[in-house]
Amino acid sequence: MKTLMLSAGEIEKAAGIIKNGGLVAMPTETVYGLAANAFDGKAVAGIFKAKGRPMDNPLIVHISALSQIDELVSEFPEKAKILAEKFWPGPLTIILPKSDRVPDEVSAGLDTVAVRFPSHPAARKLISLSMPLAAPSANLSGSPSPTNAKHVMDDMDGRIDAVIDGGECDVGLESTVITLASDRPRLLRPGGITAEQLREAIGELDIDEAVTKPLAKDAKAASPGMKYKHYSPKANVILIDGDEEYFIEYVNSHAKDGTAALCCDEDLGKLKVPCISLGARGDDKAHAHTLFAALRKADENGCKIVYARCPGTQGVGLAVYNRIIRAAGFEIIHAAEE
Ligand code: AMP
Ligand code: MG
């Protein structure tokens, strides 16, 4: 199959492909999504095939008007309304009991559905010219999510019908996922909308253990995606938990061929290995924006080992932590243990 690269002016063409049961990668404010008609189980099954995604990992349905939620969910509770009012359109996914119209391929057999109203104009236009779209990140399963159209092509050329080039994604990490289908609101995946913001809006919020820890072998994942290997470049990512000075000393004393570091602007020039900066120190939003592109760049440069400093877990930092700790396969070197 030939994969078309479409411009933001060719969204009608993309909508035609979707209506014919095809697959289109679309830019969103989080990462690029691989979209299909959410009501067409066969088209949705094509997403799993193109990505090599396990069939038990459900997809997020994207809408472009609040009224579309009625055909997707069987309940729209008060807390969901508050979150929708406050954070939509934007990088927040809400899990709710699903309606009968949502095919099993989307929900992976669960009785819930994940819904998001993206803010990116190209995504909104594509949805409004077609229908609600099921869309996971547009990468091969396991690798870092794509934050520009080139990343999508690197993974998906020949496997999907088209990509809409909408430039670089703003947030750079996937949406925050909250479930309101459990007894208490629970954060399943941190993202651009922070736990602090959610608590301010709706009060109590549990944070799922899998956000910061590996899932125990026999545990059932609240969000099936959390049990799979994720965000992994080919390089071996190793996290260093210690202060800046310790990080620099550790990397410099382990410098050898094929080693690189993800660092902050302030560290450039202090490290004896090739460096990819994630942004200014403490700028979590910049780090989120750059992380996946940096992991892909490390692979492009042929890096074998990539050292990175363990991020903090406040605000958007929690989302960066959640992704990088998975990229590292939970391998952390603690300063205190040396
Ligand atoms: P992706 O779109 O590739 O970023 O993945 C979507 C994430 O949302 C995965 O971690 C899924 O497991 C999770 N997800 C989607 N639908 C549901 C659902 N109904 N219940 C729990 N988690 C879900
Ligand atoms: Mg994904």
Condensed summary:
The chain is α/β, with parallel strands linked by helices and 338 residues long. The protein is built from ten helices and 16 strands.
General description of the model:
With 338 residues, this protein is of the alpha/beta class. The chain folds into 2 domains: 208 residues, DHBP synthase, CATH 3.90.870.10; 102 residues, Threonylcarbamoyl-AMP synthase, C-terminal domain (Rossmann fold), CATH 3.40.50. It is 29% helix and 18% strand. The chain contains 10 helices and 16 strands. The strands form 2 sheets. The protein has an 11-stranded mixed sheet, sandwiched between helices. Strands 14-13-15-12-16 form a 5-stranded parallel sheet, sandwiched between helices. Helix 1 crosses helix 5. It is globular. It binds adenosine monophosphate and magnesium ion (MG). The site of magnesium ion has 3 residues, from loops.
Topology of this structure?
Layout: E1 4-6, H1 11-19, E2 24-26, E3 33-37, H2 41-51, E4 60-62, H3 78-87, E5 92-97, H4 104-107, E6 112-116, H5 121-129, E7 133-134, H6 149-156, E8 162-164, E9 176-179, E10 186-189, H7 195-202, E11 206-207, E12 236-241, H8 244-253, E13 259-263, E14 275-277, H9 284-300, E15 305-309, H10 317-327, E16 332-334
Parallel strand pairs: 1-8, 2-8, 4-6, 5-9, 10-11, 12-15, 12-16, 13-14, 13-15
Antiparallel strand pairs: 2-3, 3-7, 4-7, 5-6, 9-10
Helix pairs in contact: 1-5, 9-10
Bound molecules: adenosine monophosphate and magnesium ion.
Which descriptors apply to this entry?
eleven-stranded mixed sheet, 10 helices, DHBP synthase, binds magnesium ion, five-stranded parallel sheet, 338 residues, binds adenosine monophosphate, Rossmann fold, 2 domains, alpha/beta, 29% helix, 18% strand
